[in-house]
Amino acid sequence: MPFRSARRRRARRRRRDAAAERDWADGLGTDTLLAIFHRLDHIDVLTAVDNVCTSWRHAAREEPTLWRRITMRGHKGIMRRLNRGGLACEAVRRAGGQCEAFCGEYAGDDGFLMYLIEQAPNLKSLRLISCNDVSDEGFTVAVRELPLLEELELSLCDNVGGFVMELVLSLFDNVGSYVEELNLSPWDNVGGFVKERLSVYEIVGKACPKLKHFRLSNKLFDVRDWNKDKDVRGIATMHGLHSLQLFSNAVTNEGLETILDSCPNLECLDIRHCFNVDMDDALLLKCARIETLRLPDHPTDDYDLEVHSPIRMFVEEEVICYSDCCYNNRYDYSSDSGDDLDFYGEPSRFESDLDKYDKMLPQSMRTFLK
């Protein structure tokens, strides 16, 4: 009996302590709670705050101002445990149409972008980091619906940055001459329209006239990149840029001069690890108006992403083969590999992804655990 009484006393003590802790948490005002929550990553708010007490749960779910600027950063290990796409959709939903900025790392795909443009029509800042499930097709569809965008980041997004084919209305009487001018095939002339090959960044420049800040970060600099100035044409259409960061980009002197001539309002330029750029006197003269200039060899201590060692020297590998079959089969692709090369035939997954997220949102937060 004495042992049982002592156990009961300890249990009552624990209940009193837990009640005191709940009273302390419930006693904080909404403004105080929001000030605390604003210091947290929104992943922590979604996965932990809801479980503390009623007042915390109410502040996290019913205050759209908390979700006006969403930040969802984290390392790759978290991505394996959580459905970050579903979390991103839930965060945007809680904003109630007031979301103005979204920053996601390992979060989001084409389906999420479709949901974002529906729920956040006034978005001004979009930062995507390591979002490899976002494609050129999905991104271009989304960015056309974001005319108010002022800040854009595409860092380590390996599947964004290519070219897409666009149908452009011909304003010329002689469509054939226009096709010839653009170096297009006669088959690209379709009923008064022509198919034009546009850079993804060129579409950004045309769709987002208010864009002021653009950040494009690659994993590492590789001197073997043969299409060195492939991003220049698109960036040159962003005439209103005030700041530009190109990290580990293959841009050359000629390409950088084109960008500088096309962006007269540029105040901040960061071209660290862009080792194809040789800052000669002519280029330094063009950069004299830039207030903040970071050159290729400048330190990367303040760079907020992982820095990889650049490949600055091209070494041609010598192929030694003593059999004629090596030359006969060197470029012989079997018919089995055709599916891997036929990337145009894959159907769009926007609708299926959006349905998946819509079904997920009303459920308990435990559904975000994989």
From TrEMBL:
<feature type="domain" description="F-box">
    <location>
        <begin position="31"/>
        <end position="72"/>
    </location>
</feature>
<dbReference type="InterPro" id="IPR036047">
    <property type="entry name" value="F-box-like_dom_sf"/>
</dbReference>
<dbReference type="InterPro" id="IPR032675">
    <property type="entry name" value="LRR_dom_sf"/>
</dbReference>
<dbReference type="Pfam" id="PF12937">
    <property type="entry name" value="F-box-like"/>
</dbReference>
<dbReference type="InterPro" id="IPR013101">
    <property type="entry name" value="LRR_PRU1-like"/>
</dbReference>
<dbReference type="Pfam" id="PF07723">
    <property type="entry name" value="LRR_2"/>
</dbReference>
<dbReference type="InterPro" id="IPR001810">
    <property type="entry name" value="F-box_dom"/>
</dbReference>
<protein>
    <recommendedName>
        <fullName>F-box domain-containing protein</fullName>
    </recommendedName>
</protein>
